[in-house]
Design a protein that fits this description.
Blueprint (H helix, E strand, L loop, with lengths): L1 E2 L10 E2 L14 E17 L14 E16 L7 H21 L53
Antiparallel strand pairs: 1-2, 3-4
């Protein structure tokens, strides 16, 4: 784990990586793995000088404990694009899905906060392609069988 420090320029981030190999059919889900992080934090605060007084200082001090648990799971669902038209249709569908989600999550108008909308992807200048549908002749192909890797057996006499 590499944690970037917090600064005025942006949020704190943590980078994690995972590597794996797997065989999966087109459109099926592959679970690569997961990471669990438990973080315990103790915060102490006090009123200057008054918090340092023996016995009475306890009235001017506080301590809080926080436990944060983060679960990160990595799932992959590969989809094989067999031609450029399929890739273009798939990209158009995902673009429109993202744009619709952005439009649906706009903040409620507020007189107190002058920012009444969050960024939204621009409207596409070309009409999106029709939704991708797999027909029986274009159904996902099964993966090729793995080569036989068993050791060679001696021939019977």
């Amino acid at each position: 784990d590499v944690a970037a420090g917090t600064s005025n320029a942006g949020p704190s981030t943590t980078k994690r990586s995972i590597e794996g190999t797997g065989v999966v059919d087109d459109g099926q889900i592959l679970v690569l793995g997961g990471l669990i992080e438990d973080r315990f934090e103790v915060t102490r605060s006090k009123v200057p000088l008054l918090g340092d007084i023996p016995i009475l200082g306890a009235l001017f001090r506080s301590e809080s404990r926080t436990r944060k648990r983060t679960n990160l799971m990595v799932f992959l669902r590969p989809i094989v694009m067999r031609d450029a038209d399929s890739a273009a249709r798939f990209s158009d569908e995902r673009y429109e899905q993202m744009r619709t989600q952005q439009q649906n999550t706009q903040p409620a108008p507020s007189l107190v906060m002058p920012i009444n909308e969050s960024p939204v992807l621009p409207q596409r200048t070309t009409p999106p392609a029709p939704p991708t549908r797999l027909t029986p002749d274009r159904a996902p192909l099964a993966p090729a069988p793995l080569p036989d890797t068993s050791p060679a057996r001696p021939a019977a006499p």
